[in-house]
Write a structure and sequence with these properties.
alpha/beta, six-stranded parallel beta sheet, 8 helices, about 210 residues, four-stranded mixed beta sheet, Rossmann fold
Length: about 210
């Protein structure tokens, strides 16, 4: 990566981290995927019960494979015989891993969900939430973050899931009410009442959607 781009990303991350601090959340900057994985594992004590929603960013840095290992109790909703029971178990987990569909440069996190298990766990339940966020997801304000979440993250995810919505044909959000829509619940996290619960690792890379 060009050194000028790296410098710009470091400065931007510093601004976001200050914004997170003002919102009672903790931010970290990782210069690459390897450092992001190291930071994440430092935040997840061995023996912890861990779970996540569909988080491509965690997968891309190797965190998904790491927490599925013998050092952690991984709650796997996708592999569970009773998926709903596994999803409900999520709320009692020690650590929930997620990314953000977008976030503002002053530390506001924006997420959209279809089944709502992910946004509900972010909002309440697990003792700690660890976000893995690529620098590509940083936006200038909430309006642009919502636009990114709807027109980049959501439209890419419906393609990934093979769903039938207007945006699968155009790549642009139609604010639809299709039965397949994944834009059901919007969560804007602007402040954490519980200090030490939300941790955001900003990665100097393009991660997820």
């Amino acid at each position: 990566m060009n050194e000028n781009v790296v410098k710009r990303n470091e400065l931007l991350a510093g601004k976001v981290i200050e914004g997170l601090k003002s919102r009672n959340m903790t931010g970290y900057y990782a210069k690459d995927k390897e450092e992001a994985l190291k930071l994440a594992l430092e935040l997840i004590p061995k023996g912890s019960s861990v779970t996540m929603g569909g988080c491509m960013s965690a997968q891309e840095i190797g965190l998904t494979d790491a927490v599925k290992g013998p050092d952690y109790k991984y709650i796997d909703r996708n592999g569970a015989a009773d998926k709903r029971a596994a999803e409900l178990e999520t709320y009692g987990a020690d650590v929930f891993i997620s990314s953000a569909n977008a976030m503002t440069d002053d530390g506001v996190l924006v997420n959209i969900d279809g089944n709502s298990n992910r946004v509900s766990a972010i909002a309440y339940g697990p003792k700690k939430v660890v976000f893995i966020v690529g620098i590509n997801k940083i936006c200038s304000d909430i309006d642009s973050a919502l636009k990114r979440a709807r027109n980049v993250a959501a439209t890419t995810n419906v393609q990934r899931f093979g769903l039938s919505t207007p945006c699968t044909k155009t790549g642009t959000c139609f604010n639809c009410k299709s039965p397949d829509t994944i834009c059901c619940q919007f969560l804007i996290t602007r402040y954490s009442r519980h200090k030490g619960r939300i941790h955001v690792i900003l990665v100097n890379d393009s991660l997820g959607f």
